[in-house]
Amino acid sequence: AQSVSQHNHHVILSEAASLELGCNYSYGGTVNLFWYVQYPGQHLQLLLKYFSGDPLVKGIKGFEAEFIKSKFSFNLRKPSVQWSDTAEYFCAVNARGYQKVTFGTGTKLQVIP
Amino acid sequence: EADIYQTPRYLVIGTGKKITLECSQTMGHDKMYWYQQDPGMELHLIHYSYGVNSTEKGDLSSESTVSRIRTEHFPLTLESARPSHTSQYLCASSAMTENDGYTFGSGTRLTVV
Asked: From the CB of residue A106, how many other CB atoms can be counted at a distance below 10 Å?
């Protein structure tokens, strides 16, 4: 069975700091990978996804993530965070050929002005 | 803006009551899902459907039931609510291709007293 680990549960950064949120998954086969974001009081929404091709994927609002197959990782990055990036971020994975998606426990990001 | 709608947004009910959480989507997605979300925990899949008259139980044991009589509608029912059912319930939908990602509703925050 696939699983997802997000090691940082709560991250606090000042505006303009760089961000990297870790995500590791356990599954030996080919996977599709996702990052979702949930802003305060809003619904979960897709931030970016990877399913093939360039392992560096770019999403909305300046976010990007890099798939490193050898490390089973899909870390989320942003060079310079803004106060409006305060949200909870969820990494998710589904095994290629299977529909069910497994989510991580989420990382709460708090950006201080 | 999400094209998947959940009602009610908040619900407080007494133990033993029967409740139905509504979920509707206007995107024509074949696949729909119910997740349970608790603070600091991963999202747990409780039910899913790949089309009309198709429903399956997810990874998390749940005393709820679902139905899929129409493509756009995927209600979740608790026959007899208990305090242990207190949680946030998220409905999601996706297109047929597995790498499309999910569209989530705003959720129903259920409190059973």
From this structure: 26
Which residues, including other chains, have CB under 8 Å from residue B15's CB and lie 6 or more apart?
B80, B81, B82, B83, B112, B113
Question: CB of A36 within 8 A of CB of A49?
Answer: no
Chain B environment of A104 (Cβ under 8 Å): 42
Q: Give the angle subtended at the CA of A109 by the CAs of A105 and A113, to the nearest 5°.
A: 170
Q: Which two tokens stand for residue B103?
A: 């569209």
Amino acid type, B65 = T
Q: What is the pLDDT of residue B2?
A: 53
- pLDDT per residue as tens digits for the range A17-75: 999 999 999 988 889 999 999 999 899 999 999 988 999 999 999 999 999 999 999 99
Do B98 and A105 make contact, defined as CB atoms within 8 angstroms?
A: no
Task: Convert the pLDDT of each residue in B19-39 to its tens digit.
Answer: 999 999 999 999 999 999 998
Contact A37, A48 (CB under 8 A): no
B2:A98 CB<8 A: no
User: CA-to-CA distance for B10 and B110, rounded, in angstroms?
Assistant: 6
CA closest to A42 among chain B residues: B106
The residue among B32, B41, B43, B14 whose CA lies nearest residue B103 is B32
